[in-house]
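cache lookup: miss for this entity combination. No prior model stored, computing from scratch. Input as submitted by user K.M.:
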Amino acid sequence: MFRRGQETATAYLFLLPFLVTSAVFFFYAFGRAVYYSFTDFNLFNTPQFIGPQPYAQVLADPSFRRALANSLVFAVVTTTLQTVFALLMAVALNNRIRGMAFFRSAWYMPSITSSVVITLIFLWLFQRRGVANYLIAQLQAYGPLLLTFLTGLVLAQVLQVWLERRAGRPAGWFDPALAVVSALGAGAVTAALAFLGVVGVREVLPFDYQYFADKWVTVGGVQVLSIPLLVVIIQNTFTTVPTLMLFFLAGLQNIPGALYEAADIDGATPWQKLVHVTVPNLRPVTFYVITVGLIGTMQMFDQVAVIGSAAPRDTLITLAYYVYANTFRAGAAPVNMAAAGAIILALIILAMVFVQRRFFPSEVRP
Amino acid sequence: MKRVLFLSLGLALLTPFAAAQTATRTIKINGYGGTDQALVNDLINRFVRPVMAREGVTVTYQPLQGDYNQALTTLLAAGNAGDVMYLPAETLDGFVATGKILPLNGVVNTSPFIRSLNTAFTRNGRLYAIAKDFNTLTLVYNRDLFDEAKVAYPNNNDTWSSLATKLRTLKQRLGNEYYGICLAPNWDRFGAFAYATGWQQFDSRGRTNLADPRFAEAFTWYTGLARDKVGVTPSELSAGWGGDCLKTGRVAVAIEGGWIVNFLRDNAPNLKYGTALLPKNDKTGKRGNFLYTVGWAINANTKNRAAAVKVLNLLTSAPAQQYVLEQGLAIPSRSALQNNAYFKKTDPGAQNARLVFAGADDGNVRAFTFGPQGPDWAKPINEALASVLSGQRSAADALKKAQADMTTFQRR
Amino acid sequence: MTVLPAAGRAAPTSPDERWLARRRWARAGWLYAFMLLMSLFFLGPFLMGVLSSFKDNPNEYPPRLLIPQLSARYIGAAYNLGVQGGGGGWRGGLHPGRTVTFDVQVRSPAGTPPAPPTVSLFPYQPVSLVSITRFAQARDFAQVSLTPAGTRGEVRSYRVTVRYPALTRQTGRVLSAQIGAPGDRLTATLPDGRTVPLTLDTPEAQAVQYTLAQYQPVELVERGGTYFLRGPIFERTPLQVDIQRGQTLAGGTLPPSDQQNFGRSLAYRNITPGVLGYTFNNYRRAFNETTNPATGRSLFFTWMTNTFLYAFLRVAAAVVLCSLAGYALARLNFPGKTLIFLGFVLFAQMVPSQVNLISNYVLLKDLGLLNLWGLWLNGLVAAGGVFLMKQFFEGIPRELEESAAIDGAGPFTTFWRVMLPQAGPALVALAITQFQGAWNDFFWPLILLRENTNFTLTVGLSNFRELYGGQGDYGLILAGAVLSAIPVILVFVIFQRYFVSTGADSAVKG
């Protein structure tokens, strides 16, 4: 289209700022990190080559092992949770309805605000006498009423469906119209029972649970998941589910309706449709979501840094934070170990991407 | 080659933004940001600049924001740290290891300063910093609660057992909603009591012995206060620390230092509080205490050593320290200041300052440190305290486990 | 899937239309209910945070949803008190020559001595992040008195009167100023920047001349070119009320901010708050308590402008440089293209930034660029942005360019005249993602920004957490968090369409 020489020159001119900054701040930096990871550099000396010894030190460092375990647990659990919840929500909401714009805005809110802001809010919510524990206490207090209502709902629904079917109408167990009636009935019964004093609000003590403490979920005596990390997992799932759900929703709307009609004709149940039609057709989106999720969660840093001293170090330390903490330290800092840690983190992420590319090929690229 | 090219490109693009280099004789001081910035600038303006200007030396203060230790480390490594700088006693070991801190023996006269503070900055016979100010622990108590329960206030003659009796009586008279004392499951409060028994943090081989009966005595007393809910951990009240506990108005005593004064003034302005020294151990008749201190140190690579020493001397001079004290900003390190008029004032803040000052020289006082292995050293102790205070273990069990953990930790 | 009732086992042969319609309606109802519930779930933490940021104590338990700071009655009272104090209903404060009245109701049950409470002003000035200036306290200037104001049943009302007499009897033009730098004479800096000597014409005024620190706000009277000191202006009027044993507080003009001594010692941190000082107190504190008097600038405000500047720079660089690079990679043929795409675009996106942390920090430090400019340079051209633009340009039909090439246009002209005008939506999407990324960026600012005047909001807020979180002062933290979230939420609400479409499209279509 254009003259060859001119085209090459223009291309490189267009690319110049990108190439220069990448070369300096990425490739040169990458090279230096690799170099440092084979030296005895501690910020105060001239680096001397000492071979792979820093890697051995890093692998022997209990806090690195903790960081590695925390990062992997966090990445796997968070990615799984957010993908599953996002998919289920997308399926539940796959309807073209009015007012979707409003709901979208509302659900997007967690993912557009900064992780620092959300972490601060979560720190506050999950205090020992915070809003989260207050809600749990309320749930305990209103438990009897809630239980009465749910029991009433189920009984009324079963009764109605049975009556409808006897009258020859093809009512499903989750028939929405009947459910409205059931809910109203159950509500009325609960209100009546509460008024008569049969059931009521229980007196409960405040639910006191300290989340940001040295508490662990252990499996066979091995500390697998700390409670503070669990809170961060909840927070991360909470912030990403809406975004991912919208990804899935877009994917769902690209699935031809004919597939569902065919399934309906075959008499498939909603569950069968989900497993045999929806999920296979969403494979590209799913793989994209998982890849992006894993890369992102493996690098989790902001939450750890913001929570900082509010939780014991071991419960939250991740690989990214390990690198940071070993670079910025009081006095001589084991920068070589930090660099080795960073390289290991990079290798893990690259390996994850490679495995996905190699074994789960998809037409979607990040 | 490539690198040079990129760098010079970068430089050419960015020279307008790069800071201009100055070549005059300057003494740069590094310290904390925040209010310290205002305080030290004030000190420099009043006591340092006028003197140094006569010698043609300009003095500047460069505050380091965020984590001071990290920031100072990078500056030292890059060779552009200040000539004079803050040096926290807790992280002294890490900085001494860099070889960038000038030993002050024979350079600065150390005799006017409180001896235990000098010890806190000494390693292998070398003194690396002069204490800028310090803090110790005291008993801070809510007068209203003691009045209501008709129990005498804690005082400086209290022993472990007499204090425990007072707290127990108070708890009995005030009932469920109120507590005697706020007990942090933490070495940084408990340690002061361990020292009172004469227990040593490290033996001659650098090992920690938690099975020592003296340690066990302190441990049993401290955790025993939690029996019948006389003592309560801050987190049980959804509080972060002792000051927060007092603020709730439901806890009679907290073990805190001078930092609590500002906090209470801002967060519980109508709380009537008093201060007493920590109680004495019944057997030894001594108190224990921690010294929390930050010192002034000199950069070993300073180009103007004489001027830097002079600045350090001015910053720690008697008039400068008196000024700091009278402004109620910090507790200075000169022993002669104990007779200062400020300490005779009757407001609760000044009273607290007097006892914090007195605490530095009374009984077994040790600098607050975790030793060469860093903060993880305290973990076995903290875990043991937490498990007993929350009722999960007996004191004997917890101590046994703590000793095992400590041995593993110190073998690393 | 459309909104249809779930099919039963035996499909109806002749469906009852009304039966079906009823199900459609019910189904839609459930759907909306579910969506509302989810919205509440996703917005809940923010709403709770926003609501609590108005409270005196966001850690109160149980957490209330109806709070005095948002009730019309107390906002009205705060406004009224602000007017009485002379600073206006909005800003509040206590000015010289003003009198403020404040009512307290005490319940003293039969059998308890009906003694009146004791009232006093107390010193109260929260520690600031950066300043140690001791401002004058209302206690040293104003007198407080108590008069009974009636009894109704067990409840006795009392009227607290705070009188703040002016330090001069001169009259003339009244104006506000700040005390100037210490010197031989007391001076004041006028709002127009002039510094004038002050005349102290009463013994009361002379008595306080050494207690006024630099930057203390004061009120002056100007008469014939002479400036008389009327007195300092107080942002707060802190009142303490101690009631007798056996009595309880039954109400007052404002609710107390602190209670001690079994509910018998009540502190009102500010009885002349104005609406800003009452409802928006934590927001005002976020700005005021970070004010450095040496520069007169609020750090929080500086962080905000820094963040805006950084976000703007990032967006500007991305829009220009990413689209250039993206276009080159999408449309131009040149040796090394694949290598650049794989290495500089794809590989660079996968490697975690912690790898580059050490080198970039040291490099920028050596260049003297540990500031916003260094931060900007460090992420000047985002690989993700290049990728986005490349994808976009690849989707544009080639015919447009070919016709331009026939007209003899070179690559640059083609890009500038033909391609870029097409790229509107993609550029907006790029700009928004870059704005959001810059605004929320935390890792690199934390590493590279070392002076608190250079901080961005995220780093500043995490500093807030360290300084105030340990003390449990979440009011300030929540207010700061809300303030820092507002701009990005605004951008989102305005450009919502682009947010949603780009994210999903690039995912699905790749």
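stored under new cache key. Residues 1-23 of chain B have pLDDT under 50 and may be disordered.
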